[in-house]
Amino acid sequence: MTDQEKDPVVHSSLSKPLFISSALLLLSLGWALYDEVYGTRPWKGYEARFAKVYSRFLKDTLPQEAASEQKIKASAEYKDLDRRAQAAEDAVKSQVAEIDRKVNLELVPRSLALNEPFQEVRGHVGALTYQIEISKSESGKESMRKEIEELKKEVHTVKLPTADGSTEKLPMDFATMDKALQDWKAEKAKLLQQRVDLMKPATELRAKQMKYLTDRISDVSEATLEGLRNKMATFEAGIRQIHVKDVDLVDRCESCHMGVQEPVTLTKAAMGGEEAFISHPDRELLKVHDPEKFGCTPCHGGNGVALTSVEKAHGYNEHWLWPLHAKENLEAGCQQCHTQEIVTEMAPTLDAGREIFRLRGCMACHRYEGFDRDPDELSGVNQDIRQKTQERAEMMREAGFSADKGDRTRNNDEAQKLYQHANDLKVRASLIDAKIEQDDDRARSLVREIKKVGPSLKEVRMKMHKEWLPEWLKDPHKWRPGTKMPTFRLDEGEIKAIAAFIWQSGVTGDLPHQPAGDPEKGKEAFETRGCMACHSMGEGGEKQGGTFAANLSRVGEKDNYDYLVRWVHNPRQRTLPYCPFEKKDVTAEDYQRAGLPFVFDTEHSKCPNDGHELLVMQMTPMPSLRLTEAEARDIASYLETRKHPDATYANADYLDDPSLKTHGQFLVRFYGCAGCHEISGLEEEQRIGTELTKEGSKPIERLDFALKGHQAEHDGWYTHKGFFEHKLENPAVYDQGKEKAKLDRLKMPNFNLSKPEIDQLATFLLGSVEPSIPSRYFYAPADQRRDIIEGWWVVRKYNCMGCHQVHVGQTTVFMTLPRYQDPDWKDQRPPTLIGEGARVNPQWLMGFLNNPSLTEKPDEMDRDGVRRYLHARMPTFYFSDGEIQKIVRFFAAMSSQASPYIADRLDPLSDQERTMARQLFSSEGAPCLKCHATGDPKHDSHATAPNFLLAKERLKPGWARRWMLDPAMMSPGTAMPSGLFRPEGDKMVFAGPTPASFNGYTKDHAQLLVRYMFQFTPEELTRLRASGAGN
Amino acid sequence: MDFHQLWTIFSTPDNVPIVLLLFVVPFYTWYGMRQAFANDRLIGQLEADPALAKTHHRKVEPWKPGWAKEVHVWPYLLRIEFLAAIIVTVILMVWSITLNAPLEEPANPTLTMNPAKAPWYFLGLQEMLVYFDPWMAGVVFPSLIIIGLMVIPYIDANPLGNGYYTYKQRKFSILTFLFGFIALWVSMIVIGTIIRGPGWMWFWPGVTWDHNRLIFEVNRDLPDLFGIKGMVGKLIFGAIVMGIYFVGAWIGMHKLITRTAFNKKIYTRMSLLQYSIMQVFLILMLLLPVKMLLRLVFRIKYVWITPWFNI
Amino acid sequence: MTKLLITCGAAAALLLVSCGGSKEEAKKEETAAPAAAPAAAVDDANAATVTGKVSFTGAKPTPRTIDMSANPVCARAHTTAQRSEEAIVNDNGTLRYTFVWIKSGLPDKQWPVPATNVSLEQDGCMYKPHVIGVMAGQGIEIKNDDATNHNIHPLPKINQEWNESQPPKGDAKIKSFAREEVLIPVKCNVHPWMRAYIGVVSHPFFAVTGEDGTFTIKGLPPGTYTLEAVHEKYGTKDVQITVGAKESKTADFTMGG
């Protein structure tokens, strides 16, 4: 029968398909195994490569280090130390040897030998004693006691080794054995102590020698490197992971990034160009955030557990909510724990972001927890007051009842109890009174603390040129590049309406007409008084000064001279005070009706109508420089000269058209202008933007990419980062292509942020997340660090850093001004405040902050209390008490001073000491009074340091001494020269020639001068000047 | 034509089984039918030649005389099964290596994904929700399906076709099954997977799933078309319509069931109970495509509105 | 018109100098000696020499007199009223105290730092000389010959700033600057008028114009250089100059305004 007639079921062979499929099976099996071992474990490759490059790196660097170490060892000092150490050791060699011999050859072996029989007997005795304790029968106890006696009496012959190696046999009973052992032990201890004493000098020298070495090796010692090398020699692959138990956080980042925690600095170049292997760039940071405690991902983001691919480990895969922060947003990680700060040390980008958020007015529309502290606190305090008052009322009522009950009750004791209760309640009520009083004060000062980002628009009528308003609204950035005011997308009609409303809602008041000033003088004053710490002047390339406040290059085109004078003279001056309770500006009429004079200032701040706290100052952080009227006029007239000559403005009479007003008001409210500006009728406006406190962890689906969504996904910016960056770069971006009515469009105006600014802000927003770690990890210290956090808010608020260095490594605006590069002007820079807390007496500081002129006489206010020689001047900020407390505490904390401060008592000068100090002061060798002011105008004209009369009140003695010894250490580049004193034994003596009277004076010279300074009196000063010093 | 979109749909690990389904189901249907037809031919042969029937049992065709009447399970069946086992293992291995479990972000109660889809084997049910109210689609029909499957042995009065593929001896049941499974179940799964995008909207394959998409569609209830207001009115109207449908469908079905002589034979073997149960299930099964038609073509939401359920 | 006058003046000045050349040469040697000292250190077989002068254009400034009345000791040190050395124009119309150095073009090599210290004296509350040049790392010996305390306070932009007091007739300080910087102003906080300038250069090719406003830079390897003249008041001027082996070229500057 032919093949095709064969039965296929029976005769068809399956061997071929069977073979193929089995082969496939084997293949897939192989694949599975590979995948298991390598495919899903890329970190193995990393570890292998790391091991290779790192060991090579160590091999290469080791010789260099060794060489440098050899050099040091070859140095004379080191050799000398070595020799002396050697000598010291030799000196005592014999004695030490003797001691060692005695201990090792006699005492130790003998005790060991004796110990055995002794232990035996003692064990036996112990056992019997126990038997006695537990046995019931007296007779039994007796017998056993006897037995013990015998045991103790029994004499053993013990073999003891002697020094010469032979053994001696001694008969000993228990007591003698015991004694012998004790004695030997004591002797051994004694000998060893002797040995230590003998060796002391030698060991000390050796320690010195070691220190000498370590002091001079820059990076890592040879020993460390050796250790590392051994580590790499015995390197074995495996997952490296940090497990933070109490958060159950597992980070395996170090399985690939193996260099991170290495003690040596590993650069990309050193690691064969592999960025993954570099050591952590900021060791300081790691010191405060120990990886073993914090892990990696809480700060950096990413998926700490994932190891299967770089993409997954870095959390860039879809659905992972906490991707690794990009380089430019690295510091976003700080924000999630450092939520309460405006300044976080070591996080400049983040700080800049926060500062933009605060300063550019983001927080005026977007609520952000902790950013509008003052208003929040104010409402909190007010609520507290209400609550407390209620509480008090209840207590008093309760007290009344209790007293009545007491009257009515029969039983005396009962009555006593009730009366007592009533009294207690009264006492507690009185305490509440105290608290309420405190709250009242706080509330009052808080009214003063609340500031607005933009200027008050109530005064436009007095301040502005009408025509300027519409021009400005059209595009603020065109008129004044870099201004805080953002560009709104307004059409012609809207601009008209808004301008009209603003103009018509403005208050009117009488401005004294001011005579013209001298622009030249004004320019000088503007550039030297300190205006430029906040304001910038000049356009484009020649722009100079601070960015904290407006650029004044064109201010002449917009402002009225008379108003400008008033503003410059005292920016806080208001035309009318505002009553938050009535929600209206209080006018002169109101005062008349109440029969009060129309005066309102920090002293007269009660509303004439209802006695509530008034807003008596402009809500601007701009301080008063205590200028004279004349100087104010000069500066104002200078500013008036700052204008584009060719600038023209269209007529704007329509601003007075009442028909525009209502629409204008609607728009102003709609666009949230009142967030930044004080506007009549809109003082109590609410924020119009969304809260951003947790924006960074908002589900991506909730971020409205609108029609951009697909493009974003395609171009790979469908992320929070992408959303923020595009939004900030062009706030209207997500309206593109949408069909929307004008008022439905996105409101957010354009701030024309630069790329770095966008990065900073994005960093801040990306960090604003629902924390992924428990709150106990947050940075919420209760100690002095709390004061620092609090203080920074005030320091930033008033831009102290424009003039002063507040923390190490910070540059002030003054440092950047060309004029202040000149050798003569360098001394004119405002003083550094690093270590201010250690320098000044907090009590004094409070007074100074309150009134920097340190005088009550109004006509003398025009000066700086401490450094009259400075052209720049510490202005009056009208700080509230609360703010002053915060600042003082801040500085105390920054230089870790205990508060409250208790001045340490200085022993009074003896007459002889006084004369000595006096002579030194007036000697040519110590020309203290040449630079330090004396109050004599002629002399002070070239003085460059404060008057000694201030020292007593102002300074802390300890600081004064440290300062005299090495001023350059505290503030490099200071006019105060170093090297005035030199050490002599354990005291400091004056370096220059000292008057004869100093001969035989044994005390510390610096200390003497300090004591002199702190007991300095005006009389003393005149006496000195009479003697010719410092005139 | 957005191929990227298409690719994302097909390449989702979740959807791989459905993609498989697309090819595997037709293939095996065809394969099974092929065998069935072959057998039918044999049956024809046997019926034609009783002598042959005596000597022959194996239901393979073409049958050659001299072939063994029967073959042993071992090795002839087992070796094939073994081969199949190996191939399946290979497929599963490769699959498990190449496609990981589709993990997503931690569930967020305030934020549901869109589209939110059931596991692929439930997508049919989910799709049904579009056409019936939850009570019907979610509870009644699923249980009916199960019960229906359970009763099949009891209402199947056709003794033929046990242990071999055949078409002509079981036309009716095969067609019913194909209709119920492929036409309804599988196609609904496919629709749920490939067609239904964000907002459970209808996106033809290759159309971008746009979250902002808006479509205008008004679904009216049948009573409203006839301007019938009021609970009771609607109730009665709906009941009437459903009644008409039932009667119509019943008659139609009856025609089908008793079309051929063979079917008539089966029909006569059935008790009234069996018959009516079968009818009920068939009619209910038919309800689904009818309703789909009404919804998708005539934009009709419900036909019968009662306080307790809607159809 | 004025321009014409100026140019004429300048021309006349040039004439003057050029005829009285040789005598001036000798004199200049010792005036500029301390500054130019290190130039000798480099002996290159085919070393070139660059000479030149810095002539002054414009109205001759009258240096302001210094008021030392506040410091009797200083006042006593002088019979005549001292004048600021900020801008001194020599009689031959050249500018004194201009620091001239090779700004760029030198081969990149380590030049030996001379062991000799350049001295900067405080005499009669004035720095002497007013401008000095040193090599980076070369010692500056600062002496105080006055009966009063001085403090020396250089204000560099690149180098490290320091400010140390020096007692009357106190022992000399030896200081040095590590990095190239032209010019570093030096002041005394006690006596505000005192001012000196130090040019710190990483090579020995620099000089300070003296009383005849000329300078000489010796031992220069052949090559093309940018020669820069720096004056505390009149800023900087550059010239390109190419010198061959053993060649000596002149490069003149005009400064002022």
Features:
heterotrimer; B: 311 residues; mainly alpha; 11 helices; 62% helix; flat; C: 257 residues; alpha+beta; Immunoglobulin-like; five-stranded mixed sheet; four-stranded mixed sheet; 4 helices; disordered N terminus
Give me the secondary-structure topology.
The complex is a heterotrimer of chains A (1031), B (311) and C (257).
Chain A: H1 8-11, H2 15-39, H3 43-74, H4 76-134, H5 138-153, E1 156-161, E2 167-172, H6 174-216, H7 222-233, E3 242-244, E4 249-251, H8 283-288, H9 291-294, H10 297-300, H11 310-313, H12 332-335, H13 348-359, H14 362-365, H15 373-408, H16 412-449, H17 460-463, H18 468-474, H19 476-479, H20 492-505, H21 519-529, E5 536-537, E6 544-545, H22 561-569, E7 573-579, E8 584-585, H23 588-593, E9 615-617, H24 629-641, H25 661-670, H26 709-715, H27 720-729, H28 755-767, H29 784-797, H30 813-816, H31 823-826, H32 836-839, H33 842-850, H34 881-894, H35 911-922, H36 928-931, H37 937-940, H38 951-954, H39 957-965, H40 967-970, E10 981-984, E11 987-990, H41 1005-1014, H42 1018-1026
Antiparallel strand pairs in A: 1-2, 3-4, 5-6, 7-8, 7-9, 10-11
Chain B: H1 3-11, H2 16-48, H3 50-55, H4 73-98, H5 123-128, H6 134-155, H7 171-195, H8 222-225, H9 231-257, H10 261-269, H11 272-298
Helix pairs in contact in B: 2-7, 6-11, 9-11
Chain C: H1 2-19, H2 21-31, H3 33-36, E1 48-57, H4 72-77, E2 99-104, E3 118-122, E4 127-128, E5 131-135, E6 140-144, E7 150-154, E8 164-166, E9 173-175, E10 181-187, E11 195-201, E12 206-208, E13 214-220, E14 223-231, E15 235-243, E16 248-250, E17 253-256
Parallel strand pairs in C: 1-16, 1-17, 3-6, 5-11
Antiparallel strand pairs in C: 1-13, 2-12, 2-14, 3-4, 6-9, 7-8, 7-10, 10-11, 14-15
Commentary on this structure:
The complex is a heterotrimer of chains A (1031), B (311) and C (257). Chain A has 1031 residues and is mostly helical. Helices cover 50% and strands 4% of the residues of chain A. Chain A is built from 42 helices and eleven strands. In chain A, the strands form five sheets. In chain A, strands 8-7-9 form a three-stranded antiparallel sheet, with no helix packed on it. Chain A has a two-stranded antiparallel ribbon with strand order 1-2. In chain A, strands 3-4 form a two-stranded antiparallel sheet. Chain A is globular. Chain B has 311 residues and is mostly helical. In chain B, helix 9 (231-257) crosses helix 11 (272-298). The longest helix of chain B is centred in the first third of the chain and has 33 residues, at 16-48. The radius of gyration of chain B is 25 Å and the shape is flat. By secondary structure, chain C is an alpha+beta fold. Chain C is 15% helix and 36% strand. Chain C has four helices and 17 strands.
